[in-house]
Structure to design on (202 residues):
């Protein structure tokens, strides 16, 4: 393989990888980088149609990334009953993904549950219960993969603390062994108190 073949393969692989991303933000960024590489590749091999096509894709990616970063999302949290048919359906429908982060058999111990809506779309569920006078245990903090960009978490834990305070919680706790979810909790301002327990004071 000469340099141009390696460069073209790298560009193709990057675009291929972008299409495997469940996060639309990651997809756009990686696709932008891959298309930029392909535009350079087109120039190097003298294929200006390839170059201009990929420059066009870069412009489109930049346009949609700008919309994603500057668009103001509308978040809503609606209390619900864990015994409703739709609530049970949502849990069952997403069970395989939920089990990666939470003990599915224990989440139903919660005494309160909420639907998490983003721009009128149901994107997740929050479940919790009181375990002490002012401590709430979050047994499920789940958002579907497509919307898992930490925006709802930031809204929930940093911009909407009143949700927890109104229930008498001054501290919230989550337990998880999943490294990805642990990193998410740290990003949200939780403090690791033991190997699988994370606490946030409100």
């Amino acid at each position: 393989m000469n340099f141009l073949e390696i460069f073209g393969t790298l560009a193709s692989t990057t675009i291929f990888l972008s299409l495997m991303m469940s996060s639309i933000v990651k997809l756009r960024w990686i696709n932008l980088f891959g298309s930029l590489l392909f535009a350079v590749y087109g120039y190097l091999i003298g294929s200006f149609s390839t170059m201009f096509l990929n420059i066009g894709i870069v412009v489109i990616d930049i346009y949609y990334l700008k919309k994603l970063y500057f668009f103001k999302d509308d978040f809503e949290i609606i209390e619900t009953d864990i015994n409703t048919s739709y609530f049970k359906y949502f849990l069952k429908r997403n069970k395989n993904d939920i089990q990666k982060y939470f003990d599915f058999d224990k989440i139903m111990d919660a005494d309160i549950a909420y639907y998490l809506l983003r721009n009128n779309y149901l994107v997740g569920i929050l479940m919790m219960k009181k375990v002490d006078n002012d401590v709430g245990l979050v047994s499920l903090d789940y958002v579907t993969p497509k919307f898992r960009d930490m925006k709802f978490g930031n809204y929930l834990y940093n911009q909407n603390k009143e949700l927890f305070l109104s229930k008498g919680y001054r501290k919230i706790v989550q337990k998880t062994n999943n490294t990805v979810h642990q990193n998410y909790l740290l990003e949200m301002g939780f403090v690791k108190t033991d190997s699988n327990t994370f606490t946030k004071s409100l």
